[in-house]
Amino acid sequence: MSSDLPPLREGRPGCGLLLIVSAPSGAGKTTLVERLVEQIPHLRMSRSYTSRSARDGETDGVDYNFVTRDRFEAMIAAGDFLEWAEVFGNLYGTCATDTERMLAGGDDVVLVIDVQGARQVRRRSRPAATIFVMPPSYEVLEQRLRGRSKDSEAAIQRRLQVAREEIASFAEYDFIVVNDGLSASVDRLRSIVLAERARLARMRTTAETISRTFS
Ligand code: 5GP
Predict the structure, then answer these.
(1) Counting atoms of ligand 1 from 1, which one is nearest the CA of 112?
(2) Rounded to two decimals, what is the model's pTM?
(3) What is the mean pLDDT of residues 158-163?
(4) Which of 19, 33, 94, 145 lies 20 to 30 Å from 134, alpha-carbon distance?
């Protein structure tokens, strides 16, 4: 085989792949996706804008871009968001130009967003692979929410109620990952990303280049 072939850019023909991960609060999606992007080169997690204030340990420009509600509303009016939603009384959104810039650079981008945001991306007919992360059961989610947070009982009940509503949306997604353990679930997500990168539509240019060496 010729050694002067260009390096393989598997599944990255110029414009990256958009992935969406949704899950009820407490299902562990952010931790899973943080691990995933550490393991897969050229995969980046989008940084959302939010009107909520930073929690202890969160940093502006790292965990989120924290902005005032007024600024967020001005961004909505200016059409800056690929999608946005109100979740637990706060506004969250994905900046369209940030996302398109990363994709145009050839990186694949994961949006960790709620089910309303995922619906907006679908409605825009923006091609995306969508993944729904589920806890193994309601009881497990309840234990996780109680174990991890200093939230009041009322706040926990509210998250559980929203989780009941969100779980019902699983059939809108292309893939389901049951989070029954961190490393097994990261492996499942990794398999999905690698399989999406191997699709004919994304590999066609590479395959054609290889094919030409046979003629
Ligand atoms: P938290 O405040 O716990 O970080 O996030 C609350 C919820 O907002 C989570 O379900 C999270 O996925 C969702 N979320 C975070 N960023 C975005 C975003 O940019 N768009 C949408 N639609 N939801 C988001």
Answers:
(1) 12
(2) 0.91
(3) 93
(4) 94
